[in-house]
Amino acid sequence: RHNVTVLVRTPEKIQLNNENLTIIRGNVLNNEDIVRAMHGIDIVISALNTDGTTTLSESMPLIIEAMENEGLKRIITIGTAGILQSRTMPNSLRYQSSKSKRKSTRAAKEHHKVYDILKQSTLEWTIVCPTYLPDGERIGKYRIERSFLPEDGVEISVPDTAEFTFSQIKTSDYIKSRVGIAY
């Protein structure tokens, strides 16, 4: 059993009521809100969206600072398959290679900044990097690979991505790693 604290802009969107869930209304760019969310926790899971802005890369230094001040070491974030290594261009990331099918690389660039920020930190980080992420059903069977998208991986559902992300709480297998996940 876990106690979960979430920091969200719009608590009304959360359709879940549980005695082990604490919902904090706030903004991830507000240091005081981040600090409030950090009290009494052991691990941070960040599933921030890039939302067309630089919120992701601007908030990560604030999150890291708050974690360090609280003595927290472990962070698991959701990234994108675009920041995994390219198989065709070994010194490039997928979004920088011809393998990328994205018209816009803005979101991948934002996730790349976060990857660089985490690499410079002393935290025990893991970046879960799903490819196309439809809502879909939980299947419970998927492939994972350190630093790369599993060969011919096309999609992974939100529930399966969440399941793998949650599983990282109990393991140190992928500390300081990006992990590709797909069916």
Automatic annotation (TrEMBL):
Residues in NAD(P)-binding domain copies: 2-170
Gene Ontology terms, MF aspect: oxidoreductase activity, acting on the CH-NH group of donors, NAD or NADP as acceptor
One Pfam family matching this protein: NAD_binding_10
Protein name, UniProt field: Putative NADH-flavin reductase
Organism: Cytobacillus firmus (Bacillus firmus)
